[in-house]
Amino acid sequence: MPNKFIGHRPEKKEYFEFYDRYVKLVPEGDIVAILREQLQTTLELLRGVPQEKVDHRYAPGKWTLKEVVGHVIDMEWVFSYRALSFARCKTPPLPGVDQEEFMSGANFSARAMSDLMQELQHLRSANILLFDSFDETILDRTGIASDCRFTVRSIAYIIAGHEKHHMEVLSEKYLSGGV
């Protein structure tokens, strides 16, 4: 059965303009397949990270490599909650997220990289099943987060683009190589 996402990217009116930089990074095609492939690519990249690099900061005041991975996980949790909320019911507006505030409450430096990778794998696997279960009616549903309207469809693209952005930064600034 063809996937309902093929050829149906979100329009700019389906999400807050800030996220266009992430949506643009997502290639054409089946977004669920893209999310699945991206998980494998990201895990492969992270498996190749030398232990001495996991707490590396490429500049003063920047996050460590583990914190970047943790940030990607945190934001996928946030985005997927938004998608689920908008898909299931009419929710009151959801609050925005201050990534620096989130990071200040995180303990990524105390966690093993393997634990972060396992969390990412389980979270993404669950989200793949979630997005694959949505039909066109659900994908078109909307909700408000950060004072902006989003479709459920757009959130799948934001998740993929956000991860791609950060894995490119990780490769370029932390590991000296491309994704």
Question: What report would you give on this structure?
Answer:
The protein is mainly alpha-helical. The chain has a single domain, classed as dinb family like domain (Four Helix Bundle (Hemerythrin (Met), subunit A), Up-down Bundle). The protein has helices spanning 20-23, 31-47, 65-88, 99-104, 113-133, 136-139, 152-175, and strands at 142-145, 148-151. A two-stranded antiparallel sheet has the order 1-2. Strand 1 (142-145) and strand 2 form a beta hairpin. The longest helix is centred in the middle third of the chain and has 24 residues, at 65-88. 32% of the residues are buried.
Task: Please give a quick description of this structure.
With 179 residues, the protein is mainly alpha-helical. It has helices at residues 20-23, 31-47, 65-88, 99-104, 113-133, 136-139, 152-175, and strands at residues 142-145, 148-151.
Could you list some keywords that capture this structure?
mainly alpha; 179 residues; Four Helix Bundle (Hemerythrin (Met), subunit A)
CATH architecture: Up-down Bundle
Helix proportion of residues, in percent?
55-70%
Number of strands: 2
Task: Give the biggest sheet.
Answer: 2 strands, antiparallel
Q: Gap between N and C termini, in Å?
A: 31 Å
Number of domains: 1
Question: Which structural class matches the secondary elements?
Answer: mainly alpha
Helices and strands, in order, run as HHHHHHEEH
Principal-axis shape equals: globular
CATH third-tier fold name? Four Helix Bundle (Hemerythrin (Met), subunit A)
Radius of gyration: 16 Å
Instruction: Flag low-confidence runs.
Output: none
CATH class term: Mainly Alpha
Average predicted confidence as pLDDT? 93
